[in-house]
């Protein structure tokens, strides 16, 4: 038995087809009245947001405004603009329609909208405002709902949000219970127009969550159950969803559920490396994870029998069994990444060799480093980045 762990999953998740028209009906039950919709220009261009807006008003709620200015790689200034726009619009709740960047922007914008101040003031793990001088119940933020348009980040059911802090060139992360959205709507219609490369990259993010969550020092039986089922669903649906796209509603729906299951607060060095590469070079998060995952698996699995056994469980899902499980599983994942049409090397993603020292520093400073099953030092990261180049 583990000495201690804590597990919470308070987000109400609804899954099915043709749910977008019920957005207002469902969000009303979470206390929303005047909804501020947050999205990006590309998603708005697909017509999806209009259908969601119709669903909001059908349920008797009002659309207070739409903010469609979230970039691929969102940041502190975007979040501040979004919160100010919601105030200006007289909104009382937030609805994110988008991928990880949109959802994370919305979560932090909601926190600023509710509590004021800057994102940096709430940065960290369990540091959002609480009753009784910070010791009591965390203060709620305005009702928040998410409709994910990628099957990857799982942010629609997580208590964390990550954005870029432009000045510091690092990722700023807030993780606390109030950031669990109250409602997540998983409808494959929302991923219908997702381009194949984005479906591939975000799917690899979900896979990384499942693998890292399973081997992390924070792993626990509650999360294990989710990770393993997520891996089974990713095994059966990721390639199908990427290849068949619009045609395969079932595979897209299953991937939305898999990503939602895979999310965890216990990550590891893949995320540490990817956060650093993302902050310095804007490499999309899922692409960076796809590149780093095999290297970290190979490294970690050599860190002792107990760690290797965890990877053996992961290998079992993919029918990979070998005395050198790290090597075999890494090779299996590299092949999958290549079949998905994603880069397998950092140099293909625009990362130069002379950046390694800065990347190492970023990875060492990332909170997920502490959750990796094998203790990591600067030389370890240096070797991993060089191997991934
Ligand atoms: Fe991730």
Written description of the protein model:
The protein contains 14 helices and 9 strands. The chain has helices at 23-28, 41-45, 48-58, 76-88, 100-115, 196-215, 221-244, 249-262, 269-281, 285-301, 305-317, 325-339, 356-365, 378-388; strands at 12-15, 34-38, 62-67, 93-98, 124-125, 144-148, 160-165, 170-175, 183-186. The strands form 2 sheets. A 6-stranded parallel beta sheet has the order 1-9-6-4-2-3, sandwiched between helices. Strand 7 and strand 8 form a beta hairpin. The radius of gyration is 20 Å and the shape is globular. The N and C termini lie far apart (40 Å). The mean pLDDT is 96. Bound molecules: fe (ii) ion (FE2). Residues 153, 205, 208-209, 271, 285 line the site of fe (ii) ion (FE2).
List the helices and strands and how they pair.
Blueprint: E1 12-15, H1 23-28, E2 34-38, H2 41-45, H3 48-58, E3 62-67, H4 76-88, E4 93-98, H5 100-115, E5 124-125, E6 144-148, E7 160-165, E8 170-175, E9 183-186, H6 196-215, H7 221-244, H8 249-262, H9 269-281, H10 285-301, H11 305-317, H12 325-339, H13 356-365, H14 378-388
Fe (ii) ion (FE2) binds at residues 153, 205, 208-209, 271, 285.
Provide key terms for this protein.
11% strand, globular, alpha/beta, 3-stranded mixed sheet, binds fe (ii) ion, 389 residues, 6-stranded parallel sheet
Q: Which regions are unreliable across 5 or more consecutive residues at pLDDT < 50?
A: none
Radius of gyration equals 20 Å
Number of helices: 14
The overall average pLDDT, rounded, is: 96
User: Structural class from helices and strands?
Assistant: alpha/beta
List each distinct ligand once. fe (ii) ion
């Amino acid at each position: 038995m583990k000495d201690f762990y804590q597990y919470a999953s308070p987000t109400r998740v609804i899954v099915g087809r043709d749910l977008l028209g019920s957005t207002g009906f469902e969000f009303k039950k979470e206390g929303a009245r005047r909804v501020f919709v947050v999205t990006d220009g590309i998603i708005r261009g697909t017509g999806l947001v209009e259908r969601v807006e119709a669903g909001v008003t059908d349920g008797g709620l009002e659309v207070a405004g739409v903010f469609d200015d979230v970039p691929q790689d969102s940041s502190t200034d975007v979040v501040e603009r979004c919160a100010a726009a919601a105030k200006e619009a007289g909104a009382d709740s937030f609805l994110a329609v988008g991928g990880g960047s949109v959802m994370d922007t919305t979560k932090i914008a909601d926190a600023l909208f509710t509590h004021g101040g800057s994102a940096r003031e709430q940065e960290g793990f369990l540091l959002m405002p609480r009753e009784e001088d910070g010791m009591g119940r965390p203060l709620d933020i305005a009702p928040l709902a998410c409709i994910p348009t990628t099957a990857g980040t799982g942010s629609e059911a997580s208590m964390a949000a990550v954005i870029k802090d432009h000045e510091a060139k690092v990722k700023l992360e807030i993780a606390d219970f109030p950031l669990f959205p109250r409602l997540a709507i998983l409808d494959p219609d929302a991923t219908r127009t997702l381009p194949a490369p984005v479906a591939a990259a975000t799917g690899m993010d979900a896979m990384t969550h499942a693998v890292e969550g399973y081997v992390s020092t924070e792993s626990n039986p509650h999360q294990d159950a989710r990770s393993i089922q997520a891996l089974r669903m990713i095994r059966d649906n990721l390639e199908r969803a990427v290849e068949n796209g619009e045609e395969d509603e079932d595979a897209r729906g299953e991937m939305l559920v898999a990503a939602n299951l895979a999310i965890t607060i216990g990550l590891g060095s893949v995320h540490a490396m990817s956060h650093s590469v993302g902050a310095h070079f804007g490499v999309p998060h899922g692409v960076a994870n796809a590149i780093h995952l095999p290297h970290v698996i190979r490294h970690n699995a050599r860190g002792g029998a107990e760690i290797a056994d965890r990877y053996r469980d992961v290998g079992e899902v993919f029918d990979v069994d070998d005395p050198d499980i790290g090597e075999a599983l890494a090779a299996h994942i590299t092949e999958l990444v290549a079949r998905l049409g994603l880069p397998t090397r950092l140099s293909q993603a625009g990362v130069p060799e002379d950046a390694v020292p800065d990347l190492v520093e970023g990875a060492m400073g990332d909170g997920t480093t502490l959750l990796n099953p094998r203790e990591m030092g600067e030389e370890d990261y240096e070797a991993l980045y060089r191997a991934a180049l």
